[in-house]
Design goal:
This protein has 468 residues and is α+β, with helices and mostly antiparallel strands. It has an eight-stranded mixed beta sheet with strand order 17-18-20-19-21-22-23-24, with helices on both faces. A four-stranded antiparallel beta sheet has the order 1-2-3-4, with no helix packed on it. A four-stranded antiparallel beta sheet has the order 5-6-7-8, with no helix packed on it. Helix content is 18%, strand content 31%. The radius of gyration is 24 Å and the shape is globular.
Length: 468
């Protein structure tokens, strides 16, 4: 029995540990309410154990964890403004809050954070960004001791991804820094290295060694958004820069919900190629991006394509202030939400951005996935002004700089219709632009061995022609 309102989401279904009842997560259509129900599988009767509410949206998660030797369970909530863990009894009554503070319990890629539970020792192991949003570490918290603060287990600064043994005795630690590619180490539950299984050292025989001499290290820094919140950025400068010479810039943008691009982790991808070809490369996690808490992430609520653009403009103005940057040659590129952001930045701030590449962009939020879009924008009927202001076509007449649009024609995430709608609008306005369609390709075409290299080469060629 999911209630009288049929316009809901059946978000998650799990078995309680005794396998006698279902744990059902029911989400309201506006996503401002999330109920956890206990349902009888034989009769269908259900009762509410707990309810989460928000003025913006209640995020779904995968942290619901049932203890094996106890009817209690662990639940995650953003009710404090940050995602934290809570211990509940079988009747839905709160036993205690397990973690707290101005930081997030969050997985290495924004996914599941709980890595293991050791009931015998009364411990829960989880990933979090307590020291800095730029790193991920494994922590442990006591299940039954309220006075004990969570303890960090992984010690080396950087990006950790952990897979823990079922009994909680050991874990595999995949770890990288901007200076060192991912290594894999078997560690005891206290973090002591037992066996370096994949050291991945950059020495003789390593496939990346021939490129190491041209590998460029990123610089990290912060800017202050218009509302005073801290924005983190990553900057790579070309090797052998000449004094008093100004260089073009390429901003790699995503800018959308849940994502985090700036992190202290290894990267040997397209950023390196761009920097080695004479570009300053810049990435900024603006307001609305993920793993920073409710205030930071909900800044775009009901107004996608607004604060995110202003933060990228702020980043571009910071770049323009650097003595080695040519402020008239700042380009921007991105894929998916980043493609949307590239369009919005080029069209809303043509005086700031000189050229853009937009990959698989959303152009009209009325054409995109309902659950995703309504979470942040509400319905078109309830928020017509927000949908109009967040529509790329609203600003198409302001396009003045060079634009390349790339899209897989079989994309089943952001449909090709998004781009063709923009094609028609720009054609009606007699605006010049370039297009690179990929027949038969889907949303992740840049990750495939055939279309990926072609796509990256196309982006580089476009900026070489337009910015150099």
């Amino acid at each position: 029995d999911l209630g009288a309102d049929p316009d809901i989401y059946l978000a998650r279904v799990d078995w309680f540990s005794d396998s006698r009842a279902l744990a059902v997560q029911r989400q309201s259509r506006d996503q401002k309410t999330l109920d956890l129900l206990r349902a009888d599988p034989t009769t269908g009767a259900a009762r509410i154990l707990l309810t989460e509410r928000s003025d913006t949206w209640v995020p779904l998660h995968h942290e619901l964890t049932f203890l094996r030797n106890s009817p209690r369970f662990i639940w995650a909530s953003w009710r404090s403004g940050f995602k934290h863990l809570y211990l509940y009894g079988p009747d839905g009554k709160l036993v205690r809050q397990l973690t707290d503070g101005p930081w997030m319990v969050v997985g290495d890629g924004g996914g599941r954070a709980i890595r293991g539970v050791d009931e015998r020792r009364g411990r829960v192991y989880f990933m979090a960004n307590a020291q800095t949003p730029l790193e991920r570490h494994l922590y442990v918290s006591a299940l039954d001791k309220t006075e004990t603060a969570p303890q960090r287990i992984t010690s080396e600064g950087g990006w950790h991804s952990v897979a823990m043994a079922q009994d909680g005795g050991v874990f595999l630690d995949t770890f990288s820094t901007p200076e060192h590619p991912p290594s894999v180490t078997l560690r005891s539950v206290d973090g002591v290295a037992l066996n370096i299984m994949v050291p991945n050292e950059l020495k003789a025989g390593h496939p990346y060694l021939p490129y190491l001499s041209t590998h460029l290290q990123p610089q990290f820094g912060t800017l202050q958004a218009g509302d005073g919140q801290t924005l983190h950025y990553m900057l790579i400068t070309p090797r052998g820069m000449v004094r008093d010479q100004r260089y073009p810039v390429l901003i790699d943008v995503y800018g959308g919900p849940s994502a985090q691009r700036v992190r202290r982790a290894w990267s040997s991808g397209f950023h390196q190629i761009l920097a080695q070809n004479g570009y300053v490369v810049f990435t900024l996690d603006g307001r609305g991006s993920g793993q920073r808490g409710v205030q930071f992430e909900s800044a775009l609520y009901r107004k996608m394509g607004s604060v995110e653009v202003r933060d990228q403009v702020l980043g571009a103005k910071f770049l323009a202030s650097l003595p080695y940057v040519d402020p008239k040659r700042i380009g921007i590129y991105g894929w998916s939400y980043g493609g949307y952001m590239s369009l919005m930045c080029l069209m809303q701030a043509p005086e700031t951005f000189a050229a853009a590449v937009s990959g698989a962009p959303v152009t009209d939020w009325r054409l995109y996935d309902t659950h995703y879009t309504e979470r942040y924008m509400s319905t078109p009927q309830d928020n017509p002004e927000g949908y109009a202001a967040g529509n790329v076509m609203t600003y198409a007449d302001k396009l003045s700089g060079p634009l390349l649009i790339m899209h897989g024609m079989a994309d089943d995430n952001v449909l090709f219709t998004h781009s063709t709608a923009l094609f028609k609008k720009l054609q009606d306005l007699n605006k010049p632009f370039d297009v690179m369609p990929y027949p038969g390709s889907k949303h992740a075409l840049m990750r495939h061995s055939g279309t990926g290299p072609h796509g990256y080469a196309t982006i580089l060629r476009f900026f070489d022609e337009r910015l150099k």
